Amino acid sequence: MEWLGVNVMDENNNILLNIQDIHKEFDNKEVLKGVSLSLHKGEVLVVLGPSGCGKSTLLRCLNGLEKIKSGDIKFKDKSLIQKNIDWQEVRVKIGMVFQNYDLFPHMTVIENILLGPLKVQKRDKTEANAQAEQLLDKVGLLDRKDAYPRQLSGGQKQRIAIVRALCMNPEIMLFDEVTASLDPEVVREVLDVILGLAKQGMTMVIVTHEMGFAKSVADRIVFMDEGKICETSKPDEFFKSPKTERARQFLNIFQY
Amino acid sequence: MQSLGIKAIFEGRNFWRLFEGLFVTVEIAFISIIIASLLGVIIGLSRTTKSKPVLIINRIYLELFRVIPTLVWLFIFYFGVTTALNVDISGKVISIIVFSLWGAAEMGDIVRGALQSLPIHQIESGKALGLSYYGLYRYVLVPQAVRRMIPGTINLATRMIKTTSLVVLIGVIEVVKVGQQIIESSRFKFPTASFWVYGFIFMLYFIICYPLSRISKKLETKWNG
Question: Do residue A115 and residue B139 have CB atoms under 8 angstroms apart?
């Protein structure tokens, strides 16, 4: 039995995020009805589901933008559900990108990116700047580093928002419908950046409506409906033969 | 030969008296604007609370200053309050008190509007970067709110400067009153003095207020362009 014990230990060490039976209410309406999920290091989890199923809320609970009613969230075996948890510290390690690419409009691209590293992490300016420029170069926007957000397209803004989160060197990245308000022709440039991250082994939780993208980027698909996880499958399985009737109906909507 | 009215401005100490009058105007307006801005920030922040009593008191305060003419407020304080409390306060101090209270009410509304107009997403993406509340206000919210406050604040400042012309009615000798005195005393010597003196005062107001509205325009285009 010795080998089994060791194996289980290893398995646990690999778990970055462990979500246990979390419940969340808005004005007495329950939007998360007991969600349990674990996220391994290097894993890409894609959460799918109809609008209002609670997938965005789930994501927002993971970095404390929403307070849960009951249950537990453990980040590297440390519970995030305690009275005096330092969310600032947690949020540095769990980066998040939103639907509305909320860059700060009064700052240039580079100022947006360096705000966290300099003011929150108190890092050295030259070092942080070098990393920011390297990341900008990777997403092909180094030449726009002194531009203001209003001078950029939606796709460019969203790529910058991703760089801004990455520049904090997070251990997990959360993506909340990051292409939902983009023009169709620029969706791809943003998804390519996320796909690149997946290849580098970044641990991610992605909420999206882009089915093709979900299929190619995910290690596991989590399908949610009405505040619960209906099924968790490998992407191939999920898209070919979903286990639940609800998932089948959902996938049918996306096919003409 | 009829003397040119413009000479009335340069007769004796008249030119300097006008500037002294202007100084009183600017002094009242300037001190009031500063006090109003400080109080206004506090009032504006307090108006973002959810506490009903605080909101109601603030609302009444603002509406009282909007509904009742500033002139009436000056009279209430200069004749009413001083008599009731049996204190002797100069017209100038009364003016500063009334203008500060009025300005603070309006400024509070400007601050509240600016803070409430900031999208919630800005707060959330600031938090997601790990900013503390202080950092959130210092780097994200206040800089944006200030930008949104500039047009309203400059507009209020010019209104306050112009409205100081009312303080003559509670005995404060400001630029318009000095002008009247000059016109009165030179009525026979320079019959057209009123045209020139008031024209000169017009210029003085313009010199103070125009740069303010220029600055406001500049900043707006700089930040929105």
Answer: yes
